[in-house]
Write a structure and sequence with these properties.
alpha+beta, Aminopeptidase, five-stranded antiparallel β-sheet, three-stranded antiparallel β-sheet
Length: 167
């Protein structure tokens, strides 16, 4: 378990799935996701992959909890992801709408970068973001990440922006 000023990050547990699905099926949390809100099967598959990543690498996506009321407000972390045909260490997150605008994403992202460099021993961390997701672009930049290119990852849509930070 890891903590920041306002957040508790812990390894996800099977019991977290209901909240994971609740956050990921919300159209508001998927405004910039070309795939749209997750249906039950996709959420189940994604959550299972998150648990398996922990089993395989001993790190991955965390369950993000607000210290103030101990509620689960999101999920996110570091995991291996394909960027076209290259595997990269990807930083990703999704917060419940009620957690927006409180600085949690920036606080979380800075902690994830710190853990990636200092606990996991990685030299670089990547993030991919839709070009119209200004809030997430700002979060990545506040965490010290810079845009290094684009990725054609969604057919028929503008390329995603690729961000990176190096140790």
């Amino acid at each position: 378990m890891e903590t920041t000023e306002n957040l508790i990050l812990r390894r996800p547990e099977k019991e977290d799935f209901e909240r994971f699905f609740e956050i990921n099926k919300d159209p508001q949390t998927n405004l910039y996701n070309p795939g749209g809100p997750m249906d039950f099967a996709k959420a189940e598959n994604t959550f299972k992959r998150m648990l398996n990543h922990w089993e395989q690498y001993n790190f991955g996506g965390w369950t993000i909890i607000a210290k103030e009321n101990k509620s689960i407000i999101g999920f996110g972390g570091l995991s291996y992801k394909m960027y076209g045909d290259e595997e990269k260490l990807n930083l990703g997150y999704r917060f419940a709408v009620e957690a927006w605008g409180k600085g949690y994403a920036t606080e979380f992202t800075r902690k994830a970068v710190d853990l990636g460099f200092n606990n996991i021993g990685k030299e670089e961390i990547f993030g991919v973001v839709r070009p119209d997701n200004i809030a997430s672009i700002k979060v990545l930049e506040k965490a010290g990440m810079t845009q290094i290119g684009t990725l054609h990852d969604v057919p028929g849509q503008p390329d995603s922006l690729v961000y990176r930070i190096q140790k």
